[in-house]
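Late entry, evening session. Most of the bench is empty. Finally got around to the prediction I had been postponing all week. Sequence below, unchanged from the version circulated by S.P.
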Amino acid sequence: MAWRNYLQDHPGPLGWAWEATAWVLRRARPWLERVGLERASRWLLPVETALKKPLFDCQACGQCVLHYTGMTCPMTCPKQLRNGPCGGVRANGHCEVYPERPCVWVQALTRIERTPYAAEKHRLNPPVDWRLEGMASWATHALERDQIPTGSETLVRYATERWEEVADEAR
């Protein structure tokens, strides 16, 4: 799908589309709260799938992080890694599991530099909450159900924070 790769490699319009979608979702939140996550997902998922499956090969995890991963779906990684490439990325940037395919994370890290979200490449994404699989990520996002805490932490963390902590400890 050459057009999909072209759009992902030039993600400016996709970033604008996400910003517009997020704006609509913020305004729709009261309605989504009234109807509930399950019903809202039943209504939104067909539209979301029709758009995101051909563009991003969306896997309907219910916790979309496309805007943090250069508009590249990390769930298309055969290992479903959410925080960067595995140790088996080949020297040519291809996947360890499927050597004929480019590594999803090599693509994501290249593409994110072309988006307004470049600083998010250090974001530590929480593990997938599989209870949300098959739900509309637009609904889970609007209702703030898409980000689960990791361990005892409730805030979003960035890898750079840990590097700063290590540097402070070394001083």
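Two things to note before I forget:
Helices lie at 2-9, 12-35, 37-56, 104-111, 137-142, 159-170.
Residues 48 and 104 are 21 Å apart (CA to CA).
Will write this up properly tomorrow.
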